[in-house]
Amino acid sequence: MDEPAIRIESLCKTYAGGKRALNDVSFDVPRGQIFGLLGPNGAGKSTLINILAGLVMKSDGKATIWGFDLDEHPRNAKRSIGVVPQEIIFDPFFTPRETLEIQAGLYGIPKSERISDELLAAMHLTDKAHAYSRTLSGGMKRRLLVAKAMVHSPPILVLDEPTAGVDVELRRQLWDYVRRLHAQGVTIVLTTHYLEEAEQLCDRIAIIHHGRVVANEPTRELIAKAQEKAVVVTFDRDIGAVPTNACFENIALVDERTLEITYRKDKVNAGDVLGALTADGLHIVDVSTRDPDLEDVFLSLVSSGQEAA
Ligand SMILES: Nc1ncnc2c1ncn2[C@@H]1O[C@H](COP(=O)(O)OP(=O)(O)OP(=O)(O)O)[C@@H](O)[C@H]1O
Q1: pLDDT digit string, tens, across residues 39-98
Q2: Where is the ABC transporter domain (predicted)?
């Protein structure tokens, strides 16, 4: 069955006051993947996640969660997803265990089928099970939010910036847990500002900017783009015919005497590229190189994204 975990079709959101936060957003989150949703501040990531969580009303478009249309089957759609919001919000007078039990009650899960203790253990909160939530550290509260999102054992877990302002140790624990859930078949969607983190964890990455999707590719393909390095080469005379060679990924004429050649730095080096040009009888008078990485790919994508109205 190839049905995606989440299908977003032409989703639009304009807030009261006129801010267009999502502009015709469409993408699928394949089942069983760790899917990264990346974008600069204000790109629209939280808006998208809050629509899926049923916290924000969409203005237009369609969202399907685990095969359930958000408008037609909101209850089933909601049961199929657990969302860890960016903001930490709790009733401070309940203990972590009570918080989880109340949440399970809201989903109508019978007492015998509840997994509160398991979740507390998974999130390293067993010794805080009966402490008041207001006495927990920020990191503990964040872990409790993850546990709360999983009380109904949804097939999809969505985490909105789970590691923002979180220390290294907690981040490691959180990702261990996410990887464990993923190994059990849970589809994970996460937003993060940390490109390196996304690169390590995600099977696929969508980049959103000014409410539009500017990239949506398997992580290794995005990284492959980051493997593309460019040399700009100027020759002593006008170039008659643009040369071809297996080690060139792409070749473009900058002016009559200058070529920009991209190559895969994991396959060849600048020496190979220049060697191929001189072997063609061309005389090089100037060379400069550019070395993009994943961050550059990200920045180039977001800088070419269009400004929303
Ligand atoms: N309730 C609201 N009313 C009006 N505008 C809003 C509201 N919530 C968000 N916005 C605006 O919508 C745009 C998208 O915001 P959103 O929070 O979805 O972005 P984000 O990508 O999650 O950013 P961040 O990484 O900073 O959380 C921003 O310009 C924001 O100011």
Answers
A1: 888 889 999 999 999 889 999 999 999 999 999 999 999 999 999 988 877 778 899 999
A2: 6-235
**Ligand 1 pocket residue status of 42, Cβ below 6 Å:** yes
CA 124 to chain centre: 26
Give me the residue spans of the domains in the chain.
Answer: 6-218, 227-301
Q: Which of 8, 11, 15, 158 to mutate to test the pocket of ligand 1 (most atoms within 8 A of CB)?
A: 15
| pLDDT value at 1 more than 80 | no
Residue 161 CA to ligand 1 center (angstroms) comes to 13
Q: What is the pLDDT of residues 248-258, one digit of tens each?
A: 988 999 999 99
Q: Which CATH class is domain 227-301?
A: alpha beta
| Nearest CA among 206, 149, 253 for reference residue 7 | 206
CA–chain centroid gap for 48, Å, is: 12
42 C-alpha to center of ligand 1: Å?
Answer: 5
19, 43 Cβ separation under 8 angstroms: no
Residue tagged 């401070």 (tokens): 92
Residue nearest to atom 17 of ligand 1 (CA): 46
Give long-range contacts, CB 8 A cutoff, 24+ apart: 134-141: 134/90, 134/92, 134/93, 136/96, 138/88, 138/165, 138/166, 139/166, 139/167, 139/170, 140/96, 141/88, 141/90
Q: What's the topology of domain 6-218?
A: Rossmann fold (3.40.50)
Backbone φ and ψ of 179, nearest 5°: -65, -35
Q: Which of 14, 37, 45 to mutate to test the pocket of ligand 1 (most atoms within 8 A of CB)?
A: 45
Written as six digits, the tokens of 244 are 């071809």
Task: Return d(Cα 150, Cα 157) in angstroms, integer.
Answer: 7
